[in-house]
Amino acid sequence: MKKMNNTEIIQGRIFNHSLSVKRVENKESASFGQNFIKGTINVAIDEDGLSVIPVDYRFVKETTSKGAINKTYTTLINIINSGKTWETDGKDAATKVKITASLGVNDFVNKDNEMTSYKINAGSFIDVITKLPELDKERHSFTVDILMTKATLKEADGERIKEDYLVIKGAVFDFRGTLMPVELVVRNKNGIDAFQSLEPSNSNPILNKVWGIINFHSETETKVEETLFGEQNVTTYTKENKEWLITGANPDPYEFGDEAVLTVEEVQKASQEREVYLAEVRKKHDDYINSLKTPEPKSIDEQVINADTIKKSGFNF
Q1: 3 state DSSP class of 75
Q2: E strand intervals along the chain
């Protein structure tokens, strides 16, 4: 497998964050006892604070694998201790950052006991900067190699869907070669025609380099209901739009199957590894749920009631 493209550049003001320092508690971990930073930085990439992109940091250690000081950890600590946010300190005072991230997925079991995956921006490097790019599109870009397996046209219906767009389904890879299923969007008419002409499918996967913008923004919409008499019923609500919008692609796809690029066997292996990982996610979820269950109460004959023990331990209710 070649080194797959998977890079995001996110620049803007810190709107807010949930960063915190934690300690590895798992005694079986090679990092047991070490500090790490975990949390999300929400970055406002526009001048009105309507386009806010979350970036997740899951496990940032103080040192690198080679024992050197981890610059990302240092920067995040400074943000925790002295960083300014739009939400708390105002737009003008908010710390400006440039984040290098990658497109990833978060897998979990939802409240309906179903395995769910959603796309995330996985943070890698971060720098505090003093000036932002003039063009918004330079503040929230992505470039990925995607193995496309389906292209579905969503046609405008005059109501919920305002214009035709194409959903590209497939998989991207992180720097470890981990396979992650994703969906990207194409709205340009020429782009829709071009991707449809490739006819990607499970039996005819297409590997290509694509790029675009991380399109997160809020829209305020107003709904007016007519009444038989009196004033109209006006309801205002905020709609959140989140998509990875493809704006360009290589004219010639990669040679899928080439050993120097990506082979069928490598994809099969990566798919199997993902299934194993999802099984671990399921098991951890089930173990956690089972740990919350109240054990069956013992019968009176099985219970040992000791007044001295109660006095020492106190009442727990």
Answers
A1: helix
A2: 6-17, 20-23, 35-44, 52-61, 96-109, 115-129, 140-154, 165-173, 179-186, 206-225, 233-249
CB atoms within 10 A of CB 45: 25
Within the chain, which residues score under 70 in pLDDT?
Answer: 218-222, 227-228, 230, 236-239, 294-317
Q: What is the pTM of this model?
A: 0.83
DSSP string, 46-73: SSSS--EEEEEEEEEESB-TTS-B-HHH
The answer to whether residues 74 and 6 touch, using CB atoms and an 8 Å cutoff, is no
What is the sign, positive or negative, of the torsion defined by CA atoms of 36, 40, 44, 49? negative
> How far is Cα of residue 7 from the mean position of the Cα atoms in its chain?
13
User: How far is residue 97's CA from residue 43's CA, in Å, rounded to a whole number?
Assistant: 8
Asked if 123 and 159 touch (Cβ cutoff 8 Å), the reply is no
Contact 5, 102 (CB under 8 A): no
Q: What is the pLDDT of residue 221?
A: 66
> Counting every residue, how long is the chain?
317
Read off the DSSP letter of residue 99.
Answer: E
Question: How far, in Å, CA of 138 to CA of 52, rounded?
Answer: 15
Q: Would you call 88 helix, strand, or coil by DSSP? A: helix
* Contacts with 213 (C-beta within 8 Å, 6 or more apart), sequence order: 137, 140, 141, 142, 244, 245, 247
* One-character DSSP codes across 135-156: SGGGSEEEEEEEEEEEEEEE--
pLDDT at residue 168 in the model: 98
How many angstroms separate the CA atoms of 198 and 106, rounded? 29
